[in-house]
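Exercise 4. Each item below gives a protein and its sequence. For each, produce the structure-token representation.

Item: Isochorismatase domain-containing protein 1 (Irena cyanogastra).
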Amino acid sequence: MAAAEPGATPGGGSCVPAGGGSVPVLFCFSVFARPSSVPHGAGYELLIQKFLSLYGDQIDMHRKFVVQLFAEEWSQYIDLPKGFLVNERCKVRLVPLQIQITTLGNLTPSSTVFFCCDMQERFRPAIKYFGDIISVGQRLLQGARLLGIPVIVTEQYPKGLGSTVQEIDLTGAKLVLPKTKFSMVLPEVEAALAEIPGVRSIVLFGVETHVCIQQTALELIGRGLEVHIVADATSSRSMMDRMFALERLARTGIIVTTSEAILLQLVADKEHPKFKEIQNLIKASAPESGLLSKV
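Answer:
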């Protein structure tokens, strides 16, 4: 891993001056936050080593990062000051820097989670092409079960809007959660993600594109996760709202794609043991509805 340098000299000897004792530090990365400790007087290099020991299986060694410190004076994170040494309890985070667009978009089952957003009964008469996105969403969830991919489902105010439609089989979902917040990024969802090692990519679909899908996607990329929105499995009441939301999200670096592209990218090879079953899912495609012509 090449980390952005805050002024410390890599390989320049120990960062810990003489003395003993340790200092509690909260180490934050992506959606995770883990308390630990470092020796009193630890510097930049020991902080990096601690991040690697805590999150090594989740850190892409080809990316560049910067270490930031939470500054009480400003009530926000700042880049780690030059020559910083840990002398008191603090909170630090590892932030990935922008990477080349050509490295984005790789999906593997072991680092992917599916998010199914608010596919509920009361939306049926209001959402354009709702029957089609239900069909595609169900196919995605079948693919997730075949490939062992965790699924997180939310329902927006189910007391008033009903539960997830019966056509969508939630068997094996890791979490089915009611919400009132538009974004799916709730504390319970963050906790569920923290239980899944190596999460890097979220495949997101449901309703509405310009509200819950958009707000969820923006929160997820703000936490350093890669987001794939399934265009043929997301819709809104208005096609104009849907179109402008997808355009806006694509400009932020979110990947707007299709269910077939997602499923075939996850198997990656005709020799994959689940390829035939995934291929059969794809063959049972939804009828042409005009939905994708509205992207």
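Check: The chain has a mean pLDDT of 87.
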